[in-house]
Design a protein that fits this description.
Bound molecules: 2-amino-4-trifluoromethylsulfanyl-butyric acid, cobalt (II) ion
Structural class: alpha+beta
Order of helices and strands: HHEEEEEHHEEEEEEEEEE
Helix content: 25-40%
Radius of gyration: 17 Å
Shape: globular
Length: 265
């Protein structure tokens, strides 16, 4: 995010990484086993938020986004889940009046706090049958995330992740949001280093063992420019075209990336 970053400790211990892993496990389970059953035409984004909050709390964690403040003049984020439908990019606020329709795409992004550590992951799901370009957008966004994660090895720099994501997604005619980025994650939701989804290979901070970073391409069907709605949170595309988002928290262990919450650790 462009939201303020806290300085991260040089390297996280395996014990700390295990805690971040547990915080992410809840989110990965929510996205794989719970929310897909409910993401159907007719449900409101408010209901998805309630389901998310209940699931997080019943797993002994706290929703990280609810009440989250980035400082004046921005109001605190009011929900446990960010729901960003179609032309909404990230940080969409769930409401009772926003009802999913067949053919929509919805990006879901949530944060957990467990035992003092944060988990952060995002997914974009189809609502019923979606058109070919939307399918491609979802597929490319997930693949871009994987291609970025593959660059998160000791010996590389953050710019290697950024450049790989950008090159891949742009090769399909899509664009990468520039105003928001991935980030370190640990005892705070947003830590150093920032992980942009565009940039130059070989530049930026060196990747080191014990780093934990959220890698989260936000891929637009059209141009990369975005703007923020008057609610001060919801980010939408300037051109009204659709956007997809996909995120894992990734730890660097023994030189290699581990996707947290997935059983890889
Ligand atoms: N996962 C999101 C992010 O990293 C959560 C942001 S919503 C907020 O930006 F309220 F927590 F800021
Ligand atoms: Co994030």
């Amino acid at each position: 995010d462009k939201i303020k970053l806290y300085e991260a400790p040089k390297a996280k211990t395996l014990d700390e990484i295990k805690k971040i892993n547990k915080a992410n496990e809840i989110i990965i389970k929510l996205y794989s086993e719970v929310l897909p059953k409910y993401v159907k035409a007719g449900i409101s984004t408010y209901e998805l938020d309630q389901i998310t909050e209940d699931f997080i709390r019943s797993n002994g964690a706290i929703p990280g986004t609810k009440g989250y403040e980035i400082g004046k003049p921005y109001p605190a984020y009011p929900a446990s889940l960010c729901t960003s439908v179609n032309n909404r990019v990230v940080h969409g606020i769930p409401t009772k009046t926003e009802i999913l329709k067949n053919g929509d795409i919805i990006s879901l992004d949530t944060v957990t706090v467990l035992d003092g550590f944060y988990g952060d992951a995002a997914i974009t799901l189809p609502v019923g049958e979606i058109d070919e370009n939307a399918k491609k957008l979802l597929e490319v966004t997930e693949k871009a995330r994987e291609i970025g994660i593959a660059q998160a090895v000791v010996g590389n720099r953050i710019g290697d992740i950024s450049a790989a994501i950008q090159e891949y997604a742009e090769s399909f005619g899509f664009s990468l949001v520039r105003d928001f980025a991935g980030h370190g994650v640990g005892k705070s939701m947003h830590e150093d280093p920032m992980v942009p989804n565009y940039g130059k290979a070989g530049t930026g901070v060196k990747i080191e063992d014990g780093m934990v970073i959220a890698i989260e391409p936000m891929v637009n069907e059209g141009a990369y420019q975005v703007r923020i709605l008057p609610d001060m949170w919801t980010v939408i595309t300037k051109d009204g075209k659709r956007s997809a988002h996909s995120e894992y928290s990734v730890a660097i262990v023994n030189g290699k990336p581990i996707k947290l919450g997935t059983g890889e650790l």
